[in-house]
Amino acid sequence: MTVLDWMTLGGGLLLFMALTSSAVQRLPISTACICLAVGMLLGPAAADVLRLNIAAQRQWMESLTEFAVIVSLFVGGLGLRPPLHHPTWRRAVVLAGPVMLLSIIGIAATAHLLLALPLFVALLLGAMLAPTDPVLAAAVAVNDAQDHDRVRFALSGEAGLNDGAAFPFVVFALEGMRRGALGPWMFDWFASRVLWAVPAGVAIGYAMGLGVGHLAIRLRSCNRDMSASSDFLALALIVLAYVAAERVHAWGFLSVFAAGVGLRNAEVQVVRTSPHPHMMKRARQWIARSADGIMPHPPAETMVSANTDQQELEQPAVAAGVVISEALTFGHTLERLLEVLLVVLVGIALVQSWYWPAVLLATLLLLLIRPLATTLLLRDREISRGQRRLIGWFGIRGIGSLYYLSYALNHGVPDALALPLVQIVVTVIACSIVVHGISVTPVLARYERGLAQGKHPA
Questions:
Q1: Span 378-393, mean pLDDT?
Q2: SS (H, E, C) 396-417
Q3: Which domain holds residue 378?
Q4: How far is CA 127 from the centre of its chain?
Q5: Is 243 within a domain?
Q6: Dist CA 304 CA 322 (whole Å)
Q7: What is the pLDDT of residue 446?
Q8: Which residues of 109-140 are buried (b: 16+ CB within 10 A; e: fewer)?
Q9: Are 231 and 49 in contact, with CB atoms under 8 Å apart?
Q10: Is the model's pLDDT at 280 over the cut of 60?
Q11: Three-state secondary structure along the chain?
């Protein structure tokens, strides 16, 4: 295909998505399902306009999926507003830690026994497929910073944390494949890849997000600058947080997610110390609505509008709202573009990569391994049994797994294992997109009706 052909195809797809967005939202399927179907129509199964060999295109697939994941992680972190000491964060840590680890073990054991994969290869597959996806989790993530629903927050926090938390296990499996056995190298792996890289990544990203956020808000307020571009700010923070962590051998994914959380906490601190004059009345209304009492102030972005003028920017809370609002708008737009592109690519590759035995693995992962791990380890008196089942069900696999696959192909996976790993991962991702895409609308609608009727804790 020529460049003009690619431009025509991309422009037509984006136009279709833009004109049909309201109709798509009313359908009982997710946007990802539609994008997957479009990719299949463009691929060898139908029009045969495009073909994609992920193993052969591993270099640029790693870069593209890496960028998509870090953008989504930043946007996800920016949407989470409860203070770090709140119990909602503890649930996310349990899901991204013990639940993910048990999922890795379950997937590895299943792949070893049913698919006859060598032990370290099975462990690598488990590390690829265990983390839930921040890119495709928009339907079950928090709707905005005012959404404190326990199910949505737990899933959003998990998707943000576990894409970085899975990286040490990917590296462990690759190192085990290279060395062929366990040994003293495990101590170095644990010290450098877990004890150092995990907390360092979180600390670096959070400090950068908090510091840059306060600086940007202060400059906006002092200069009353309506022309400053917060989309550049968001992109710069994403890139620099990732690079800063990687430079010191910490996990960049965790750093980017923490940068989003840090930028959000800069807004929280500003509105607490310098509330808008009109904010106190709204704050009292907010407290009355919030059963959790999570945040005594409404998000700053709710205080701004398209008509905000330079004079209003003197108020730090308004400046904070402008910065956060513009960063979120930019992040969501970029995230949606990358989601459409990558899911279409999965659809194109699906026919060549479909592997029936992997359907059994996907079934066990989605129906048994993930729900069982959640039931066993997510013990919280404030989470009802129905909410725990929802959290266990909505463990969506997607672009994060595709990134880990591309990374592994570029960092030590033998060519003989490349094709089976591609087939298994792509098949599991496709199964997750279809099953979760079909179930998300009716299941969440039923859950929200239950909330309205008081069937779940507030």
A1: 87
A2: CCCHHHHHHHHHHHHCCCCHHH
A3: 27-452
A4: 16
A5: yes
A6: 7
A7: 86
A8: ebbbeebebebbbbbbbbbbbbbbbbbbbbbb
A9: no
A10: no
A11: CCHHHHHHHHHHHHHHHHHCHHHHHHCCCCHHHHHHHHHHHHCCCCCCCCCCCCCCCHHHHHHHHHHHHHHHHHHHHHCCCCCCCCHHHHHHHHHHHHHHHHHHHHHHHHHHHHCCCCHHHHHHHHHHHCCCCCCCCCCCCCCCCCCCCHHHHHHHHHHHHHHHHCHHHHHHHHHHHHHCCCCCHHHHHHHHHHHHHHHHHHHHHHHHHHHHHHHHHHHHHHHCCCCCCHHHHHHHHHHHHHHHHHHCCCCHHHHHHHHHHHHHHHHHHHHHHCCCCCHHHHHHHHHHHCCCCCCCCCCHHHHCCCCCCCCHHHCHHHHHHHHHHHHHHHHHHHHHHHHHHHHHHHHHHHHHHCCHHHHHHHHHHHHHHHHHHHHHHCCCCCCCHHHHHHHHHCCCCCHHHHHHHHHHHHCCCCHHHHHHHHHHHHHHHHHHHHHHHHHHHHHHHHHHHHHHCCCCCC
The verdict on residue 22 lying in a domain is: no
Per residue in 219-233, pLDDT (tens digit) is 888 877 666 667 788
Number of compact structural domains in the chain: 1
What is the C-alpha to C-alpha distance for residues 418 and 24, in angstroms, rounded to an integer?
A: 36
Polymer length in residues for the chain: 458
Residue 229 lies in a domain: yes
| Whether 163 contacts 134, CB under 8 Å | yes
Residue 300 confidence (pLDDT): 79
In a domain, 298, yes or no: yes
Q: Could you tell me if residue 255 is left (phi over 0), alpha (psi between -120 and 50 degrees) or otherwise beta?
A: alpha
Q: What is the pTM of this model?
A: 0.90
Please report, as a single letter, which amino acid is at residue 92.
A
pLDDT of 401 > 50? The answer is yes
Q: Which residues fall within 8 angstroms of residue 343, CB to CB, at 6 or more apart?
A: 32, 35, 36, 39, 136, 398, 399, 433
Q: How far apart (Å, rounded) are the C-alpha atoms in residues 218 and 230?
A: 13
User: What Rg, from alpha-carbon coordinates, does the chain have?
Assistant: 22
Share of the chain above pLDDT 70, in %: 89
- pLDDT tens digits for range 52-64: 899 999 999 999 9
Q: Which of 32, 35, 128, 43 is nearest to 352 (CA)?
A: 43
- The CATH number that applies at residue 189 is 1.20.1530.20
Q: Which amino acid is at 299?
A: P
* Cβ count near 454 (within 10 Å): 8
Greatest Cα-to-Cα distance within the chain, rounded to the nearest angstrom: 68
